[in-house]
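Input record (Table S2, row 411):
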Amino acid sequence: MHGLDPDVLIIGAGCAGIAAARALIARGQSCVVLEAGARVGGRAFTTRALGAPLDLGATWLHQAHDNPLTAFVGEHLDHDTVRERHLHLGDRFATRAEFAEYWRAHRAFEDALEAAPLTPDRSVMGAAPEAGPWDATIAHWLGSQINAMELTGISLEDYVKTDLDGPNLLPREGVGGLVPRLAEGLPIRLNHAVTQLDWSGRKGQGGVVARGAWGEMRAGRAIVTVSNGVLAAGSIAFTPELPAATRAAIAGLPMGLLTKIAFRAKGADRLGIAPFHTARRAVTPGAEPPMSWIFWPFGADHIFGFVGGARAWDLSRQGPVATEAAARADLAAMFGPRVDAVLGECLVTDWGENPLFRGSYTHARPGHHASRDTLATPLGDGRLRFAGEACHSRFAGTIAGAWLSGESAAA
Ligand SMILES: Cc1cc2nc3c(=O)[nH]c(=O)nc-3n(C[C@H](O)[C@H](O)[C@H](O)COP(=O)(O)OP(=O)(O)OC[C@H]3O[C@@H](n4cnc5c(N)ncnc54)[C@H](O)[C@@H]3O)c2cc1C
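Output record (flavin-adenine dinucleotide complex):
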């Protein structure tokens, strides 16, 4: 465009930004990626703070046979081939027969959702069976613990059109090992938070101008990949203001919250649970909603768990000390006081409070499934385009959706 200005500015170096930059460069276009944080990968982030790789954000490559990131994965394992699920019933773990009954109910619940007519404005809960003894546990699992939001707040259409099936691959290096590897060599500027984006295309200005405390940069077009939490908070001032339809789409796709908690074992006791197995408690009316746990991945000496939905937001506001205490109590409810001797150092994620994310991933409010396509619609003759997990319908909320939407924005 103007001398050395790049063809495209990409805001955010998560999955979508990395995919967009790779696709542009492959097409012979120049680009610069402006990333507010001090690292690439965004919500794909692996730490070794507890020794072995531990994903603080994305964990699995879902739907691996058509996940675009499967092509790049190194050593990995299909979690479904090695995980046994343990369900705690309040005073003991379910027997195999009880678990089989629960799992049948789980499949029937999902079949009922698939078969329900996609009436506009219908929530997932509006189509859920509520007759069986397991249904509250299943709804909690599918809502808060998988979609980071209670089923009452999620569009049925969005839910059934999102593919989250297996195979579910666990990369040994972590998803946050894999994704930043794909950014090697890309023109990424870290610590470049964009606070203003002028996409007016005013005469003499050409395309877009991004500004921040670091200065300003011009380009022909911009692809904005920051989370919808960041967009909804108004962290980037757009000039001119975004169209009403785009603002409504952002509001229709709020961020849910999934907080991860991990513990390193103090000694040799592994709680009698084999590597890769999972455990969770059945929902008890009147009690705090339970968390879910994955034990000793790849034989590492840590476990990790999730708390999602309203309880996750509540604990996030209370802070990591309260979240750790709640997590210890959740595990003690299954394993008893033995956990005190097992659970050592703890890590708690801050996706909810972190101003670069403000949540974990989006869901569509009832009636707002179409918002994903609206948000992905180019604006200003193609000068401005949004990308990221919120902009993909089939792989909504995931690294696969973020990646594909980045590629399609670049195209
Ligand atoms: C706990 C948790 C578990 C998850 N589990 C899975 C899973 O198992 N499988 C799966 O597929 N997905 C999972 N996800 C979702 C997945 O991580 C996201 O969908 C995906 O990483 C989003 O990528 P993105 O590029 O759309 O956004 P992001 O990764 O958020 O990238 C946007 C980037 O923009 C940057 N940014 C923010 N503000 C600015 C600004 N003003 N200027 C410049 N840069 C800015 C951010 O720092 C960030 O790097 C999980 C997420 C979380 C949090």
